[in-house]
Amino acid sequence: MSEVVGYELKGRVAVLTIDNPPVNALGIAVREGLVTQLDRAVADEGVNAIVILGAGRTFPAGADIREFDQPTREPHLIAVVDHLDSVEKPVVAAIHGTALGGGLELTLGCHFRVAAPGARMGMPEVNLGIFPGAAGTQRLPRVAGLDHALELIVLGKPIGAAKAKKYGIVDAIIDGDLRGGAVAFAEKVVADGTLRAISSEPCDGIGLSEDHAATIEKYRDLANRRMRGQDSPHQAMDSVIDGLTMPYPDAVAVDRKRFELCKNSVQSQALRYAFFAERKASKIPDIGKDVAPREIASAGVIGAGTMGRGIVISLADSGFPVTVVETSQESVDNGMVEIVKTYDEMIQRGRIDAVEKDKRLARITGAVGFEALNDVDLVIEAAFEDLDVKKQIFGELDSIAKPGAILASNTSYMDIDALAAATSRPEDVIGLHYFVPANAMRLLEVVRPAKASPDAIATGMSLAKKTGKIGVLARVCHGFIANRSRLPLVREATFLVEEGASPAQVDAVLMGVGMPMGPLAVSDLSGLDVSWRMRQSLANQHDPEERYMHLADRMCELGRFGIKAGQGWYNYEDGGRRPVHDPVTEVIAMEVAKEHGTVRRDISDDEIRERCLYAAINEGAKILDEGIAARASDIDVMWLYGFGFPRWSGGIMFTADEIGLGKIYQRIKELHAEHGKLWTPSPLLVRLAKECGSFTR
Questions:
Q1: Cβ proximity of 104 and 136 under 8 Å
Q2: Is 278 a catalytic residue?
Q3: Do residue 169 and residue 34 come from a single domain?
Q4: Structural domain count of the chain
């Protein structure tokens, strides 16, 4: 199997080149090839040093994740890494592209490491619910020190070559020809008689855990705050801590048992599912790779409000010249002031410098009137959520925008087919539903109207990628995928308060399943009046057999719009943003319950959890059954990136499969009997429950 690892002599240096495109993943063929070629170099008396590097665009970027669910085959990567300790000729890893996870562990087995200036290194395994399983938790602390090692292992973020050299991971940075530079470095090591650095030494560990108590506490705290509820960062820390005092072989043996438990955990399965779900989302089932997106060299945004400004910043940050249009110069000026403030905040946080701020601002032009958009390739409407207003805008754009320009609406729930019908070119109209704040949130819901052309849809998905977002395709329906699937959760949260739960209890239960904020606190943050206006616009479509959110309406009728009003589900004292229990909410809930014959009672946490999650799952099944979403995993990507649902849960559809569709269906039948039409089981859920099927497997 050595053909994936090439062997070439450069003088007295053997160059081993890993060639396993696209990312040189360390699958079984590569591992076998490395051992074979290393042994060949060791046996070759004409070789006095070895260089290992990757062909193509990267050093091995990690293990082959597809092997995780298969029986492991020898040699394991750790055997390859440990084998390098026994090679008495100096081995130099030459890193370009990325050396992540197993790729970095392979370099730690080498005696020296050199890197191209643009190389990046890291141990992102915690993001897949595991930890470095090829002795990375033992070798990296010995090479870089405990603090730097925990930074990479626990937080899972890669670092650049310069920082890696500062941390002691890289011995030299090679400008220019990496291959030639690595060979020269190896020759110098031999000429100077430099001793090999073996990263499993000192074999007895690097110190007592109490000597590093402050560092350990720092990373425990960071793991709890940044990855709340996720187990793998703590398993990774335990692995590192074992290696502080255990002899290297003993620590590695414990590691292997812990690694298998992590790999087989539900959290790891969910995180690996999320990893692949994100990549599947970009694939449109009925649009092939031969459909090219249209070229977008410039863009325009209608509206300089909160959403419009975020979209403008997202485009400008990605290198697009963008014109923001408003109805008056005053509105344009106010919008630009707020955009400048956002960039100033980025400078304060160290994300950009003043030079970069000026570059990005130079890409933004403010204008009054749609005529300024007559030559842009993409127009994104981010106006007030009123269908008549939006139809008027699209009608005007139809006569102004150049032929072939993409006309997009940022609406979060309105009928984009109706907007397309307001133009003479419905094939150019799509939805681009951004999430607040648009410049920071990574999800972009690309909505596909009935008459949109394939290349227009491809353009929307391409734009997501070019602006650093995860594009997920949705068909047209009220709320599309994201908001439609979330609305039942918010609906049930509201009903539960009317029935006797407190907002704090509801929010606490859902934060307990990993959500970063409870749904009622989120409603206060975004403004209760936003959903109120939506309900009002659809009042004529309300089915009288379906229970209505009277309590949410009453809150708005009383001016309790959330944080911006100082009162919502919670009270916000002295203009603050921290939700505080407000007894008035309970009084209002009691009044609404009495008016509508709702019996108030004590409500268990289990009921809150089931009603909120199962309502969303049932709606997700309907969305999937109707073809609004192409895959169950697309719904999950929406929840992970749009609503902050924990990645270690996989999303609501993956969670449903873990709970069991039969169990969920049985409970939904009970809720249907108790609460009526809103709980009608999804036909797809019924079918899959009876077949013992699943959404995601």
A1: yes
A2: no
A3: yes
A4: 3
